[in-house]
Amino acid sequence: MNLLHARWTAARGGRDGDGDRGSGAIAVVIFALLFIALAAFVVDGGMTVAKRERAADLAEQAARAAAQDIDVDALRAAEDLGATAPINYTNCDADIRTFLTAAGLDTDDVTASRCVAPTDADQVTVEVQLTYQPMLSGFFLSGDQHAKGVASAQSLTR
């Protein structure tokens, strides 16, 4: 056995396997970094989905809050005896800002949220913005990320 080992060592230029030393550690480090990067994208991807859902929920609720602001004078003066309930759509931005502030949104997000077309006496459409920072993938993404939600609401009396 020693003769075989001596020939093997001689064939390798006198090295007795020292050239492979540490190669397992390098592989472990590479796989650890890949695992951390994958975990970062999973966590931040989940956060992105959650923020988009939250923005959509808040947009729906803000649109309902704006649609509940009925123009009482137009309602009383209507010839259809209340079959339609006109929305006081000129107050839409103020209504959604009041709602979003009460919901606990950041001042910058409340300011960036707005009523969008079509907005009239029959329907209001609201766009809500949420700002968040990625937890782990901040190395790849710079600055704040924004999630937006859009929803519409109508005022119906039926």
Descriptive notes:
The chain has five helices and three strands. The chain is of the alpha+beta class. A three-stranded antiparallel sheet has the order 1-2-3. α2 crosses α4 (92-102). The protein starts with a helix and ends with a strand. The mean pLDDT is 84.
Question: From N to C, what is the helix and strand string?
Answer: HHHHHEEE
The total count of helices amounts to 5
The residue fraction in helices comes out at: 40-55%
As laid out across the biggest beta sheet, the strand order is 1-2-3
Task: Give the CA-based shape.
Answer: rod-shaped
Strand content: 5-15%
Which value, in Å, is the CA radius of gyration?
Answer: 31 Å
Protein name: Tad domain-containing protein
Domain Putative Flp pilus-assembly TadG-like N-terminal: 22-69
Keywords: Membrane, Transmembrane, Transmembrane helix
Organism: Actinacidiphila cocklensis
Write a concise keyword list for the protein shown above.
alpha+beta; 3-stranded antiparallel sheet; 158 residues; Tad domain-containing protein; rod-shaped; 5 helices; membrane
The gist of it:
The chain has 158 residues and is α+β, with helices and mostly antiparallel strands.
